[in-house]
Structure formats: C-alpha cells, structure tokens
Write a structure and sequence with these properties.
It is a single chain. It contains 5 helices and 7 strands; from the N terminus they run βαααβββαβαββ. Strand 4, helix 4 and strand 5 form a beta-alpha-beta unit. It has a 7-stranded mixed sheet, sandwiched between helices. The protein is an alpha+beta fold and 170 residues long.
Length: 170
C-alpha cells in the first residue's frame, strides 16, 4: 500500500475579487454542515448576515480583521477569518469543504491564525462553536483548544447561537 500524500496547501489573503467565491463556498459548506444542528431558516439568516457581499467587502476594509483562504491544487477549499474582538484574538470563522476535511487544511489555517495572534502579542486564540457541532468541537480539541465557557447569544429574528467559547493558549 502506498503512503497517502498530504495535499499541497496554499494560504492566501482574501481579495475583493474573491468575495463572490467565498460567499458561494460558505453557502456550500453551511448546507453540508448545519442541517440538523440549526434550522434552514437560521442557516439562511446567518449566511446573509455574515457572508453577504457587502459585509465581506466591509470586513476586508477593517484593519482589525483578517480573511484568509486555503487552496489545494489551485482549488479554493476553505477559509478562516480572524479578528481582534473585545481585546482578544478571535478565530471568527473556519470552514473547509467537506470533501477535503480531515486532511490538515483546517490545522494549517489554525496555525496561520495562531502565528498572526502571536506576532500581535496575544496570549491565546478564542473561537465560538455550536454546542451540537461535535465534529468541529473534536477537531478544535485536536488542535489544542479547550472549552472556556458556554454562551447563548441572541442574534435577532428569534435566533440564538448556543455555543461553546473555546481557547487555545499560545
């Protein structure tokens, strides 16, 4: 049996021209990930709230936010958004296409974000993850994150985010 070759992963900043592709990738990943965790109505609401083109263009202009994308063999397969949030360094979004999960792409993006946090003098990286998203929670634990607290955050229109806040010490 021949060894499995790890994919060639390239991480690049998201540019304005990438916004439509990032929004489309987010929709594809969310539709594969969140049914059964949250309702379709909440999926649609959150996609529009977080991945509408204008929101993404605004995020690109914010000096305290960083949008990175991952490519494998020139195929855009994931992204990570990070930001300074209430004085802490937050991994706000991390999504990998389901076809290429568990191949190290998420780990590379986490390492990329953690290095940025370290360079900027932050002692840890935090993130929020849905309490029912056990696959993501297990993956974050694998990369050194631990649950810090549980929260329920009202995001409007009758929807809440029922999350764990996890942190990784650097």
């Amino acid at each position: 049996m021949s060894p499995v070759l790890s994919p060639c992963i390239e991480i690049k900043p998201v540019l304005p021209a990438d916004v439509p592709a990032i929004a489309a990738l987010a929709r594809e990943i969310w539709q594969a990930t969140y049914p059964g965790i949250i309702t379709q109505e909440q999926i649609d609401f959150m996609l529009e709230q977080r991945y509408g083109h204008e929101r993404l263009y605004d995020d690109l202009e914010d000096a305290h936010k960083w949008l990175d994308q991952a490519f494998v063999d020139q195929r855009r397969i994931g992204f990570a958004f990070s930001e300074i949030y209430k004085g802490e360094f937050k991994l706000d979004k991390l999504y990998i296409h389901p076809d290429l999960q568990r191949q190290g792409v998420g780990g590379r993006l986490i390492a990329h974000v953690a290095e940025r946090a370290r360079r900027l003098g932050h002692p840890c990286v935090i993130l929020a993850v849905n309490k029912r998203n056990t696959a993501a929670i297990n993956s974050y634990r694998k990369y050194g994150f631990a649950v810090r607290e549980a929260i329920v955050d009202d995001i409007g229109h009758g929807f809440v985010m029922d999350d764990f806040i996890m942190e990784k010490m650097l």
